[in-house]
Amino acid sequence: MNRKAVSILLSALTLACYGQEAEKDVDNHQAERQEWFYSQREYPLGHIPTGARINAIAAIARQASSGCCCAPLPTRPIPTIGL
Fold first, then answer.
1. pTM of the model
2. Residuewise pLDDT in 10s, the chain (83 residues)
C-alpha cells in the first residue's frame, strides 16, 4: 500500500510541475547591443578594417610562439611613506 501511495504522490507532483509554463524572456534590445559593440571597435575610421580579426589572431600567435608575452616592467624600490 505504501508503494502505491508514493507512486500516486509522485504522479501528482509530476503533473503539477509539467502544467506550469516557463516564463519566456523577451529580448527587444539585441540590435542596440550589437550596434554599440561594433561602434566601439570602429571608432576612428567609422568601420572595422578588412582582415582586422585575422591580423589580431596572427599577432596573438606570434606572441605565444616568442615565449614572452610582454617586456618586463622596470622596477625600482617603493618609497616608504610616513616614516
1. 0.40
2. 687 877 787 777 676 666 566 677 777 888 899 899 888 888 788 888 899 889 999 998 888 887 766 666 778 887 888 76
Amino acid at 80: T
Q: Which of 7, 27, 26, 23 is nearest to 15 (CA)?
A: 7
Radius of gyration of the chain (CA): 30
Per-residue cell: 83: 616614516
